[in-house]
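Hi Y.,

Following your request, here is the sequence exactly as I used it, all 216 residues.
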Amino acid sequence: MQDKITFYYSPQTRARSVASLLDELNAPHDLHVLNMKAGENRQPAFMAINPLGKVPAIRHGDAVVTEQVAIHIYLGDLFSEAGLTPALTDPLRGPYLRWMAYYAACFEPALVDAYMKREPAPEVTSPYGTYDQVMEIIRQQLSKGDYLLGDQFTVADVLWGTGIWWTLQFGLIPKFPEFEAYAARVRKRPSFTRAAAMDAALGAEHEVAAASAPKG
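Below is the corresponding structure, written out as tokens. Let me know if you'd prefer a different format.
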């Protein structure tokens, strides 16, 4: 019997996509909730897990995995029997890894620069080119089928579906029809609904705890 996973989680963070993924994979795990409003993510116990004090993170046996994309790839391969990860011999494996990497290497950096109103590096040296190029590349990919790799739902869609949905809510990406249809499609999945409910409930608990905490 393989070691159970410990999932370090806090509401209203990138950890939500991992919550959906664990649900999709039917992966046994222990949920370790951190109240970031109370600074629990900055305590020594968690800083030993991730020195940046960020979630998501997982522990699996002696392995500690941080970084949202790495966790998705790791879990998808670990629970390959769920059928959500293209095998090494599958022609979709390369495109799958490409889009997983593109999320962290291009999509998020472009979003952060745009949100912070920072001028990106010159196009020839920017890791993502330009914000508009990134959005158009994603739009074109999502125009090819229901999911990122066409008709097949994969771990990549848990990551991207959550990200596209979240950024649409805050007006961080254009309301392209392809984006809105994709987000709505992923949002209908039971795993997304359950993760959203858990996120809302724990977020409310943390708000109450913050309001009742001694001041000063």
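Helices lie at 15-25, 44-47, 68-78, 93-115, 131-142, 155-169, 177-187, 190-212.

Thanks again,
Q.
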